[in-house]
Amino acid sequence: MKTLIALSCLSLLTSANLFAAGGKGGGVDYEANLANVPAADPAPAGTVQLKPELQGVHPRLIFTKDELSRLGNLVPDNDILRVNWEATIANGKKAKADKGVPPRVVKSDTPALVTAGGQYPNLAYAYTIEPTPELKQKIVEILEMYQNAPYWTLSKEVDSSMGAANNMLAAALLFDAVANDLEPEFKKQFAQTLLEKARRMYYIGHKQQAIDIHKYWQQDPANNHRWHRAAGTIACLLAIQDIDGIEAEWMLEQMKDEIDFLVKWFPHDGDCHEGTGYQLFGFHFLAITATMMDRCTGTNYLSAPGFKNAWQQQIYSNIPGARGFMTYGDNPNRVGGKPGFGSYSPAFFIGPRISRDADAQAALEAWYYRDAMSDNGLVAAGYPWLMLLYYDPTLKPGAFKDLPTHKLLADMGAAYIRDSWDEDAVLMLFKCGPYGGYTLNQYRNELDFHYVNIAHDDPDANSVSIAKGDDIVLHPGVYFTNKLTANHNTLIVDGKGQINEGDSYTQPVPNVDMTTLSYLTGWKVGAENRIIIEGEAGNAYPGLEQYRRSAIWMPGEYILLLDNVVAPMESNIVFQLFAQEADFTDPDVGTGFIASKSGQRIDYQISADQPFAGAIDNYIFYGRWGHHLMDRTQFDVTASKVKFATVLDPWGKQAVAKLVENADGSCTVTVTGDGINDTWQWVPSKDLQTPSEIDGSRGGKQLISLTSSDKAPHGDA
Amino acid sequence: MPLSIPRFTILSFVLCALTSVSAFTVKRNVNAAEPPQDAVVIFDKTTSHDNLQLEPNGKNCTIDFAADGALQIHFKSNTEANPEIRWTGGIPETLDLTDYQYVVMRCQWTGSQTRTFPNGRTREEEPANPWFVTMMLDTEGVRTAGLNVAVITGKDSVPREMTTLKIPVALYLQGAFNDTSKIEAVAFKMGGTHSYYDRNYTFIIEKISLAN
Fold it and tell me: Is A526 found in the same domain as A475?
């Protein structure tokens, strides 16, 4: 049996007024797109249904009235909850419908993200907390605004853009808050509209029937733009499942398949291959989707490990003593700024909410207090309702300084390592993973190299970045407008970088398993948090046979980088360091320094197994959010093979290294400095998979060793 | 004459191969204390500039010389301008940019722009970054990388005082579009802007040279 879906007459009439000339507006053929939305859906299979106890209950999508009341009882005793509770109510009271025709929230993605998806839900909370006629009227006016807008996005992605998704989320949450208080006829009309929007999103968007559109978000499960669509569509469908005369069950079944797909491929780390910034932009939308589904239908999506672990990428990439991240991928890597807590940052509180990890709760709370404390006290998150949604004040914080000081994001082949959780700590990022990470590549490989979106990934294998205290010193870069290896703290060979570099948006390497190009080989955590991490990126360069980089982390003492580079022929091999400031201190002994403009400085000393040259040039980081003048330090040789040993001295121990290549091809590296007299035996791996053998000792006692069995994990498995 | 290699030389070579090299040769260092030495002076306000050809390339752009000989590029209104400084003698017809380490430019940005709001109110503005770009043209008129002057000062601001910019040639080469071995003009670009802006800027140049 097919169910006839009635389209909103009001919407069509308004549509005709706004978008004359045969349904084409601004170059968009609305009618042709809508022709791809069938008049009816098939009969549901009965596999997904609203929980019986929620039939007729509103609000229900992300809270019930009772749940919110109980949360309110905790407000007096918790500052984080209090400032966000108050801000949610205050911001909700400020929310209002846009009288413009069309309203701004449908004109472009930005107001849809900020005003609709970001701020309108405050009103849903405010009305539930204070159900006054004035607040009800505000919601009704916003719903009428949406009802009178024939399209919830004026873009070629007709009612299937990211902006449309955010409008859907806002409209559904507002409808959910007020549904049982609405005039019955309007309630039914608006429920019909929510269904109409969900169907358009599904048929035009998810089914890839938008006309003349690059289908960039539908090709893989990790695209955060897809998660925005999931949130908006699920919110609409769950809000209307029990409305008389609304047949939305089959659509919900289809979208459950979609959420199954997204959660199946959500990395266990909960990490984002596009970096910390894009994780921030996407995670909330997947988390709220799973939350709504679990609450309303009894699914168990939030048990997927990625949800409880996602906070780690945020916390571990946090700069020790200042607001900001040090991350790979597309992120401006800004440091500092006025007090505040990122708009979508509250979503990461869902981790300890699920896991009951008190130390994680403490880390997130400490992050909040550090970033959001102003001269006038604690300030609310950008979207305060998200704190009410994700933050569980009943979970008492533990001791975040008890958390491990390192985190290997195995899905990405990246590790964050710090010497402490203090504000003056040193933080290192080592990255040598495949474009997209392992989970996404598994998806791609299983589907015969199906297209995946890795547009925001950089050709940065074997790159190292370091923050010290309140600033980034060895810089990972910015949101580059052109993805080049030359922008990163790794090698370039004969002026060229890693495979598929050079585009504004990185594309997958055709017909190649990208996990074979660059990957971690070794990972060892030893006593006193000494760590050895190692990456292999030889296959990522057209001009190299091997590029093995080992980083030895001696917390409080030094960082030793060992590079073994082998090319098939004589090549110009260039080792790079990027910082805001740089200089050579004594080239005769291989010393120099890198520094931030704020004065954080790291001295280094470099040795090689053959004569080499150094140069410091200015270099511009061309970024989407601004250009930055940097100092680029390069060391180069023209040879078919070279070994570099570089000791970095962020703790000011006057550390220097001496590299001796033995007759058998192994090397001895001695590192001396204040209280340091270490000997490292280094046998570089002869193949592209086995970890090198590295063994350190001091005064006859072993410091840490990497052996052929200390293999780094590749992905979640 | 047969080649004779003393035994100690062979021993030294073997030792060298087995031990590390920490000393490195410095190719370039933009932060070195020693100032760069001029190799080619394209323009100096204190010397004759009869060999220069000045092309404003913009209907509201003019170029002239101040009383002290400094070169002045004036930008009015809100239209695009692409002023060029060319030469006909005194220095090589074309220059290979890669032969030099720096472009040294002693210069100053002056003036402001006026914004007119719909209600007729006006506001004078001195944006730190007016998106004014320096570049080099080859014989085909194709440009090197365009460098935003506010960015290359390292202060996110155009130089409001007379300043000597020591611009590494590497920045012009980073992403250059042209044949950098055949440079025949120093050029600038001021993009067009909104009609509600009225610019009145002057870029003053006292010297342009290529240096090592």
Answer: yes
